[in-house]
Amino acid sequence: MTAGQNSVQSNKSIPDLAPLEAVLFDVDGTLCDSDPIHHLAFREMLLEIGFNNGVPIDEEFFIKNIAGRHNSDIAATLFPDDIPKGEKFLDDKEAMFRRLALENLPPLKGLYKLTKWIEDRGLKRAAVTNAPRLNAELMISILGLKDFFDVVIVGSECARAKPYPDPYLKALELLKVSKDHTFICEDSASGIRAGVAAGVPVVGLTTRNPESVLMEANPTMLVKDYEDPKLWAALEELDKKGKSLKSAA
């Protein structure tokens, strides 16, 4: 069964979500531009063990086989004949990532403009990630968003990680919000598929992944970052619709 086979895909635009109840965020590549750090950690550590005959992995390999995927899936891809070795390698790689992230973890452009917009409207919010909890909580803390999120959902703590809908469905359940009044921010095809499979509209971010790859996952819209005029036009329309619904009630 493919991810989302039992789920209804959402064809709603962002303004259709009024009155908005919640915004859900992926972490890596969505809150911060962390993929270059992951790529560096993978490249250096795979070189050390002579992976790919000692040829460093390039960005194309990283995007196709690693970005946005859960570590158990990455381990199976990189070490198909020795999964335990792959899982140990991934644990060591995550420790290296955390050391590097402490030195430099830039927020995505316009992130704090959007988080303020969300706070000003009293919306609920969750971080929903395939990253290990230690990584997710470190990144959220470095970005100063520890008190921003109501809950942090980790894929490995759900029955199935992204690209299955389970982590997003769990977020909706814990926040007690409707998929019809929530949207998701995601930067990977795997994450977009998870959101779409959960029936929630997804704003896709072209942080590092090619637009063509993201569009195949069926996001509601694609934006460059959180300062993209397309995003703010949609949010302005959403605000207007919300106010007219309130005045009509």
UniProtKB/TrEMBL annotation:
Entry superkingdom: Eukaryota
CDD domains in the cross-refs: HAD_BPGM-like
Keywords: Magnesium, Metal-binding
Cofactor(s) named in the record: Mg(2+)
UniProt keyword annotation of Nucleotide-binding present: no
Pfam families, per database record: HAD_2 (PF13419)
Record-given protein name: Haloacid dehalogenase-like hydrolase domain-containing protein Sgpp
Organism whose genome encodes this protein: Hibiscus sabdariffa
